[in-house]
Structure formats: C-alpha cells, structure tokens
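Need a sequence for this fold. Nothing fancy.
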C-alpha cells in the first residue's frame, strides 16, 4: 500500500449501507480520507462543503438522483472528478452519465481492484503535492491560509502558537531540542525566559486536546519535544 503524505479526500455518495461501508473501508485501507453520504440531498451538501478530490456517485439515490446531482455540480463550475457507480450498462446510459458531467463509469457489481485503478487514474492529474499543507495523523496545518484542523475541528491559534506548531509538524517524529526550537521559532537573539517554550506547548496542548483527542506533542525529558502519537 502506497499512501501519499497528504492523502486524497474521496466523497462516497451511496445509499446501500453495506456497499458504502465496504467502499469506505477499502479506501481508508489504501490511505484515502473518506466522507460518506447516504442520499442525494446530503450528498449535494457534502459535495459543496467537503472540498473532496474525487466523488464516487451512485446513479440511483433517494432525494436527488446521481445524474441530477452531477449536472448541478457541473452547472456551478465544480470540476471535481466524478465516477458514477451504477447497475445500468446500456450504451445510452453510459452516454447519459458522461453527458451529465461524469468523468468515468463503473458498473455494479465491480471488483475493488478496478475501482481503485479508476480512482488512481482520475486523481493522477491532481497528485502534485500541496506544499502549503502539512499533516500528521488527524492534525493538518495550512501555511497559506494559516488554518489548523484537528479532524473536522477548526482551531484558532495565535501567531506564535502557529509558528511553534508549524515547526513541530514540519519535523514529525523528530526530537527537537529546546535550544533548537527557541532559535528557530523565537530567534537566535531571543533574550526572554527559556521557559516560554513550555508555556506555549501547554497552550497548544489545551487547544489541540480540547475534545479529549490523543496527545500528539510529547515531552522528551531533558531534551525537548517531538510530534508523535
């Protein structure tokens, strides 16, 4: 299994719970981030809000059909790759799906290997890594927008808290000494209290663990800190 440092986010819109769960598990095993919606209306909202890199879209959905959902997405200018999942296998159905704006078409029942291959093919043009986005476990940091997320939770940080977290997440699983952190984040000519690092680590932990999430910033006694689970 090959997992990118920043894995693609796939939105699965499928109303058959067992199939949706199967697809979700397979995609997560391959390293993708996955969101699942079980009907057309929920799927439409998720498609607009989730910023998915690819959508797996069932043709027959309650609420809004997959075909109509795809048309509406394209009408708004959304160019996210869409792969239709359907039992319809007539040429006219394939043409209707492609005319609605779908990029590809997988007929049920399908092999998971074929589905994964089609996903990889559609994601390939978009695989240039976003160098502004840093991620570790469920923690993500965007350098350009200065947004921090723990899972789906947006975290507000001060400028210096952001700088410290950016330095830690840029060196995952590396033990960083207090002197090195102080010099990089506060500057080599910093003349303040060296305990400032402990203070800011405490601030970060309070915000990153506000919902009882797993601690990611670990203390290495006598040395410094490391980002690891």
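Here you go.
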């Amino acid at each position: 299994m090959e997992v990118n440092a920043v894995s693609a986010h796939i939105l699965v819109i499928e109303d058959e719970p067992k199939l949706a769960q199967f697809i979700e598990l397979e995609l997560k095993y391959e390293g993708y981030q996955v969101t699942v919606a079980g009907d057309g209306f929920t799927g439409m909202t998720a498609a607009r809000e989730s910023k998915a890199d690819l959508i797996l879209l069932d043709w027959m959905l309650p609420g809004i059909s997959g075909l109509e959902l795809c048309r509406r997405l394209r009408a708004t200018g959304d160019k996210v790759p869409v792969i239709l999942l359907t039992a319809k296998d007539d040429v006219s159905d394939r043409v209707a799906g492609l005319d609605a704006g779908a990029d590809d078409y997988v007929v049920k029942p399908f092999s998971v290997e074929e589905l994964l291959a089609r996903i990889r093919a559609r994601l390939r043009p978009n695989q240039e890594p976003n160098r502004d986005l840093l991620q570790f476990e469920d923690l993500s940091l965007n350098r350009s927008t200065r947004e921090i997320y723990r899972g789906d939770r947006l975290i507000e940080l001060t400028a210096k808290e952001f700088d410290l977290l950016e330095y830690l997440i840029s060196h995952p699983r590396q033990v960083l000494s207090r002197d090195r952190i102080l010099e990089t984040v506060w500057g080599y000519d910093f003349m303040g209290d060296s305990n400032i690092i402990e203070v800011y680590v405490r601030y970060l932990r309070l915000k990153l663990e506000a919902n009882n999430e797993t601690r990611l910033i670990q203390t290495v006694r006598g040395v410094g800190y490391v980002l690891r689970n």
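For context: The domain at 9-126 is CATH 3.40.50.2300 (Rossmann fold).
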